[in-house]
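Notes to self, Glycosyltransferase family 2 protein:
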Amino acid sequence: MVSITLCLIVRNEQSALGNCLESVKDAVDEIVIVDTGSTDDTRALAGRYTNNVYDFEWIDDFAAARNFCFSLATSDYILWLDADDVLLEEDRRKLLRLKSELDPAVDAISMIYHYAFDEYGNVTLSLRRNRLVKRANGFRWHGPVHEYLAVSGRVMNSDIVVTHRRTHGQSARNLTIFENRKGRGEIFSPRDLYYYANELLDHGMWERAAAEYESFLRTGQGWAEDAISACVKLSDIYERLMLPEKQLASLWRSFDYGEPRAESCCRLGAYFLSRSRTEEAAFWYRLATRLEKPKDCLGFLHDAYWTWVPHLQLCLCYSRAGDFAKAYFHNEMAGRYRPDDPHVRHNRTYLEGMLRNEAL
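result:
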């Protein structure tokens, strides 16, 4: 059986850290926590779970903090989490099983990350991340903000899920780091440009975000998943800025970087539906329902577009076309994911009435 060190970097996480550590403490052999300047009771809370609590002077560099934390681990493998992540019971058991069966020749293990949820508990945002890595390989984190762990060798994709339990609201921290770097004249990598654009978008700076996404795409470099995402986000920005030609062009452009994604197809459906081009809208929504969700995607997937959204929109399309049987079918498909959604319930009542009238 291999041994595992859990590594976390924290700052003012007293409201979340206990849940994180409780969920995983019995599945790891060592816990290393690096504090980057807490002013609450985070350090005292961490001390209840481990003696390995260290200070790191914050230098606006997440990769540096994580690399320092990794350097303190002593086990065969390193598992990293954030303080507002947890392992649900089923996933804790899977980790214990993996630990007992893992072939030491494996260099890294990816896990599914459930990052956001809707009001019904459905996952709305998910991706894969490399979570468990062989310590002897010395894998390093890169990037001051939105850092990534570079791995190589034999990588295994597991079905273990890390669940994100957000406890903090939107912060300007990451945007400030980017702005300071830009102010110092630092040259941004393609990845930096993409994540800088994301921060600008999150803070409502539409035109500036669009410019940075366009700069990222013009490099012709970077990860295909980021390029697809940039195109989709550009389409949303151009819709907001009332630039429909650029909105549509951005969605077509997303197909340059890989197979069609449900996120793009549903936006194309919405584009045509808003212009009363119902048949074209239905085509794109139907395509979204037929696509197979990528299983090993390391980029964010907006799960709603792969599940209930296209069905609910097809209900609208078929209802407008007078095909109430198909509309009812797709409404019920959406209801499998959101049974208590008021739109689903309203549609059901309306369509059942229309179908009864047709049967008379």
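- Strands lie at 4-10, 30-35, 53-55, 77-80, 85-86, 108-117, 123-134, 141-142, 148-149, 155-164.
- The CA atoms of residues 29 and 240 lie 50 Å apart.
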